[in-house]
Write a structure and sequence with these properties.
Distance between the termini: 60 Å
Mean pLDDT: 93
InterPro entries: TauD-like_sf, TauD/TfdA-like, TfdA_dioxygenase
CATH class: Alpha Beta
CATH superfamily: Clavaminate synthase-like
Protein name: TauD/TfdA family dioxygenase
Shape: globular
Structural class: alpha+beta
Low-confidence stretches: none
Oligomer: single chain
GO molecular function: dioxygenase activity
Number of helices: 9
Number of strands: 16
CATH topology: Double-stranded beta-helix
Number of domains: 1
CATH architecture: 4-Layer Sandwich
Strand content: 15-25%
Keywords: Dioxygenase, Iron, Metal-binding, Oxidoreductase
Family: Belongs to the TfdA dioxygenase family.
Largest sheet: 7 strands, mixed
Radius of gyration: 19 Å
């Protein structure tokens, strides 16, 4: 067998051992598909994939999707490769990158099927910070008490880019808010997602702005508590990057965030695999406004 996978932690993460020359083998691709469902996050240490190889790997796993064409850094050197960096020469608007310091799911504020998986490779690192943390939202659901599961099962949540970057700017200007609205939709997503295979996961992140049918403070308090629950240590894998590492994670069942850094030289290359399941829909104005009520 040309590929082996060892557990990083009991409930999340796997370390993949495979030669770069075998990354596109059918055996590798099938193993990755299977292990991604079981472990949520897979690490290929120092495999040193070029953009060409990373895109080929992405394409072998599914259709690629690019949901950040309007964000500075997208397609900077290769089509469908997004450069994640604070380098002002490539990224004149750092909001999107600074927002990744907080728990999130890629593409959840886009009115399309949720991306299935994200592939990220390390090209240049910061002197401090910059590790990426991943939390298993399948396990977070599974471990909840049955009574709490019943209480959460039918709730829906409003997600927006504005909420995602609120920790960055606090109260953004009207100009910024207009850019955020042009960039993505305000989405209503289930709090508990029942996937096509029958498994269930929570859908959480800083972009979650309130629960439909609850006063704003009550909904946000519940979302904060659930996010803390999902980020308990046994459900989180932290990856401390080495240049050349490639990581892929199941974006439909894992939320992630980066440990803050200030180094503008840090560069990561991201590609994305399209999903087929669309858990939510664009939110109505009525539901959006109701999450800001306090009683």
């Amino acid at each position: 067998m040309s590929i082996t996978v060892e557990a990083a932690k009991p409930r999340i993460g796997g370390i993949v051992h495979v030669d770069k020359d075998h990354l596109l083998d059918d055996e590798t691709i099938e193993t990755v598909r299977h292990e991604l469902e079981q472990r949520g996050v897979l690490v290929f240490p120092q495999i040193n994939a070029s953009d060409e190889l990373q895109l080929a790997f992405t394409d072998k796993l599914g259709d690629r999707v690019n949901f950040t064409r309007q964000v500075p850094g997208s397609d900077a050197s290769s089509p469908d490769v997004y450069k994640i960096t604070l380098d002002r020469a490539l990224n004149s608007e750092p909001d999107y990158v600074l927002g990744t310091f907080f728990w999130h799911i890629d593409g959840i504020t886009i009115d399309q099927p949720l991306p299935k998986a994200t592939v990220l490779s390390a090209r240049k690192l910061s002197d401090s910070g910059g590790a990426t943390e991943f939390a298993n939202l399948y396990a977070a659901w599974d471990l909840l008490p049955e009574a709490e599961k019943r209480a959460l099962e039918n709730l829906t949540v409003i997600h927006s880019v504005e909420a995602a970057v609120r920790p960055v700017h606090g109260h953004p200007s009207e100009e910024r808010r207009a850019r955020y609205k042009a960039m993505a939709a305000v989405m209503e997503q289930p709090l508990v997602w029942t996937h096509e295979d029958g498994r269930k996961s929570l859908l959480l992140g800083t972009h979650a702005d309130g629960i439909v049918g609850m006063p704003g403070p009550h909904g946000r308090a519940l979302l904060t508590r659930l996010q803390q629950w999902a980020a308990q240590p046994e459900l989180v894998y932290t990856h401390n990057w080495t240049v050349g590492d490639l990581v892929i994670w199941n974006n439909q069942g894992v939320m992630h965030r980066v440990v803050p850094y200030t180094d503008e030289g840090r560069v990561m290359h991201r590609t994305t695999i399209a999903g087929k399941e669309k858990p939510g829909h664009a939110a109505t104005e009525e539901h959006i406004q109701r999450i800001f009520e306090i009683a």
